[in-house]
Amino acid sequence: MSRTRALLEADLLSWMREAAWRPDDARFAGLALEVFAFQFEHCEPYRRFCTRRGATPDRVEDWRAIPPVPTGAFKEVPLRCFPAEHTVRTFRTSGTSGSTRGEIHLDSLSLYEASLLPTLRRHLLPDLEPGRRALLLALAPPPEEAPDSSLTHMFATAIAAFGAPGSAFFVSDGALREKELRSALAAAGEAPLLVAGAAFAFVHLLDALERAGAKLSLPASARIMETGGFKGRTRSLPREELHAALADRLGVPTDRIMNQYGMTELGSQFYDSTLAEPGSSRRKLGPPWVRVRIVDPESDR
Length: 301
Prior knowledge:
The chain is of the alpha/beta class.
């Protein structure tokens, strides 16, 4: 029988809240196997999935042998380790109109938020001094308009934890409030400034600035985070072109423009390294409680 959820969660929360930020392979391996055993025991669809592959807790001795769930599974079955009536939040993947959307169900937000906050701070706000707060401007709808958006929840959690007065959301009824955003950007002082949103929202901002023949010069403390694709909501731009256009229109150097890689189905995020590792080549960094494997979904290898 697996360890109790309370004990597992306590160990995970302890790791996520530590100031040290270094890989610990032994710690990861042990916790990964324990989480696998817990999910195998308490999530019936996942147990069937693993059993068909002959991967059971008594046979799996290395975390690399834990069967990863394909993202399509989140569209087909509810993957949860608790009774459905205990659900407090359901996040859904973005999708085109009429398409089936994947879902992740949570009965607590504690682990989700404990994971996202130190990762975001380390990679987007490494210069934020203790006791100071940053101006966070989100090109996204507020939680009351998008309660099932994990991205909106991430921004709301970051604003609550790190946000200075004036931090806000700038999408309403599906439209970017471009004039209000421009006013907020123009009024930004020298405090750390983070402008964050989906890539397609930044394209909308760029198009609005181009129509107005406007360019902004954001303070030296500014940094930009874009994430996600374009999903048919606007014209598509290669990432390098998007970053170059943002640098040109907003006056932010490209080494202060970061991409975030995240998925609704994934409880942790990866960020470009340019602020966390200044002067280094751009690469993706994730938290120490995450590992990456490349797996062929057909062969599981």
